[in-house]
What we know:
Elements: E1 2-4, E2 20-23, E3 30-33, E4 41-47, E5 54-56, E6 66-71, E7 76-81, E8 88-90, E9 93-95, E10 100-103, E11 108-111, E12 114-119, H1 121-128
Amino acid sequence: MLHVDQMVLPEEMDPTEMGMLKTRPIDREVAFELEVQGRGQTVVSIGRTAVSDVVVNDYTISKRHAVLTFDATARRYTLADAGSTNGTMVGTVHLERDQTVMIENGYWVTMGRLVCQFYTPRGFYNFLQPRA
Length: 132
């Protein structure tokens, strides 16, 4: 279980660079590793309660806000809104209840007022490399 106690503010909303979610909080960045389990599908629930895999301590996050899925066979990630009150967006696309969209490396995800960037393992490795 992972907890987020920092609030984030959006910066640039341009997808440029998939597992990792990286937030942009006021005072520091926080990264959460989403570990792939086996060869089938790995499902990670995101919400405000302790039963979620990723717990976000913020009043704009629903008890069961969103679900991130990795399909090992198709080698792709998807994100679905789980009926949240304050919404889930991928880039500028607002997800309807139970709507699922494919997400790729560098996509911006907004849940309530939490803004994060999604990275694949390779994309996150590249993000950590020194820039020229």
